[in-house]
């Protein structure tokens, strides 16, 4: 079983020590750690060197601490061994840390650039990984009106069907519905597009609305809309760019929440295993309708705000958010801002098709901030999370075991 990122000391504590901001107890703790081995002294020496370099970089404006996102790079070199992948030095992985206080900037630069963990051969290694898990792919399953199904991948470009003047075309990673005539359908026929765990797919409806469907999701929609309303039903998560039509409102139904728009861009997250339904608005304006029995609650959203329906409490709240945290998945990233580890691992489990085991319930409530590449192998994700949380991750086949260091 391979271990990943086992920290020797809290790097935030080292930063306080170097900044002469540590108290007597913290100083005593560091001095005790230093006395344990020469390797620890060498670690502090190199950490201090990078700390000084990072302060100079910030001083001369090489890094803008006022930016919302600070981009930090570190490097790694892969050495192949029998049955393992050993990461021994540094090579190009990027992560982002959100809204960093200037006093913590050197810590994150150092943490991103440098980490030493001694192995039994006294080599400077970051991790030994026996297994790794690849990211998801572009594929989906289309259920047609006659209940027949078609598997969609990125390797094909072909016409699947023509119904009531609408051509259904699979074009690599996008399913397209294009009008060939303006005839109204004799009856509304529905298709359903489903992405399994570990997959995502794009969809363009007959009105020109574009949809990004996240992993473990499904969306039901008419092949051709009626002349009064455009309505789709979502389970899971999708991002919408709705084609503007003032005469035909566009409605997304997710459980008992309706998102009503005329033309705008927004994200809806409505997985069954989540306790909330989120609607996050990028541009335009939407109305959220929540049905609780005979009661109907309405809420108007403007760009930069999110409507959050709490399923258990059966109430809705509105809050201002960083929209990128909720829409980056469609652009190939995971973005987290002070997110609980349990929530992060649920999101990763849908994309990587993994099982997650916490060895302690308290670990679920650790928090992480960062921006990670969605198409990286999972080891890179876990390395970055471990770097700032003092947690240890083990990969065993398709299971991730999380421990406190």
Structural account:
It is a single chain. With 405 residues, this protein is an alpha+beta fold. The protein folds into two domains: 2-133 and 334-404, Phage tail protein beta-alpha-beta fold (3-Layer(bab) Sandwich), CATH 3.55.50; 137-327, Jelly Rolls (Sandwich), CATH 2.60.120.1440. 20% of the residues lie in helices and 45% in strands. It has helices spanning 11-18, 24-35, 38-59, 105-113, 324-327, 341-352, 378-389, and strands at residues 2-4, 69-81, 84-98, 117-118, 124-125, 127-129, 137-138, 140-143, 149-152, 157-163, 166-171, 174-179, 190-195, 199-204, 210-213, 217-222, 230-241, 250-254, 257-261, 265-270, 276-283, 286-292, 295-301, 305-310, 315-320, 333-340, 355-358, 367-373, 391-396, 399-404. The strands form five sheets. The chain has a 19-stranded mixed β-sheet that branches. The chain has a four-stranded mixed β-sheet with strand order 1-29-30-27, covered by helices on one side. Strand 10 and strand 11 form a beta hairpin. Helix 3 (38-59) crosses helix 4 (105-113). The longest helix is centred in the N-terminal third of the chain and has 22 residues, at 38-59. It is elongated. The chain starts with a strand and ends with a strand. Mean pLDDT is 79; it is low at 1-7 and 57-128.
């Amino acid at each position: 079983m391979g271990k990943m990122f086992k920290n020797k000391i809290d790097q935030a504590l080292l930063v306080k020590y170097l900044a002469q901001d540590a108290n007597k107890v913290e100083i005593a703790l560091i001095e005790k750690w230093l006395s344990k081995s020469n390797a620890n002294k060498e670690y502090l020496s190199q950490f201090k060197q990078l700390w000084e370099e990072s302060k100079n970089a910030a001083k001369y404006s090489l890094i803008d601490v006022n930016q919302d996102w600070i981009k930090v790079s570190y490097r790694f070199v892969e050495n192949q061994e029998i049955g393992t992948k050993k990461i021994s030095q540094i090579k190009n992985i990027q992560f982002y840390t959100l809204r960093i206080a200037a006093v913590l900037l050197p810590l994150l630069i150092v943490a991103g650039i440098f980490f030493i963990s001694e192995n039994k051969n006294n080599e400077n290694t970051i991790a030994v990984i026996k297994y790794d898990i690849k990211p998801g792919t572009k594929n989906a399953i289309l259920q047609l009106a006659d209940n027949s199904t078609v598997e969609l991948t990125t390797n094909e470009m072909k016409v699947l069907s023509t119904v009531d003047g609408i051509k259904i075309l699979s074009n690599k990673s996008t399913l397209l519905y294009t009008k060939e005539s303006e005839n109204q359908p004799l009856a509304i026929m529905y298709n359903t597009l489903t992405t399994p765990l570990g997959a995502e797919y794009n969809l363009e409806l007959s009105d020109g609305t574009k949809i990004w469907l996240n992993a473990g999701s499904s969306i039901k929609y008419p092949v051709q809309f009626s002349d009064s309303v455009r309505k789709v039903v979502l389970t899971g998560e999708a991002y919408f760019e709705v084609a503007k039509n003032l005469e035909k409102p566009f409605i997304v139904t997710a459980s008992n929440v309706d998102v009503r728009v005329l033309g705008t861009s927004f994200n809806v997250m409505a997985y069954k295993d989540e306790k909330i339904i989120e609607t996050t608005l990028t541009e335009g304006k939407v109305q959220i309708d929540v049905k609780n029995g005979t009661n109907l609650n309405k809420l108007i959203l403007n760009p930069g705000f999110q409507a959050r329906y709490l399923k258990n409490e059966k109430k809705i709240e509105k809050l201002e958010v960083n929209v990128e945290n909720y829409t980056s998945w469609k652009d190939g990233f995971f973005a987290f801002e002070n997110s609980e580890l349990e929530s992060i691992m649920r999101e990763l489990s849908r994309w990587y098709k993994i099982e997650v085991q916490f060895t302690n319930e308290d670990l679920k409530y650790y928090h992480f901030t960062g921006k990670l590449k969605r198409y990286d192998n999972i080891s890179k994700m876990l390395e970055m999370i471990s770097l700032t949380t003092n947690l240890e991750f083990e990969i065993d086949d398709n299971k991730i075991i999380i421990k406190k260091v």
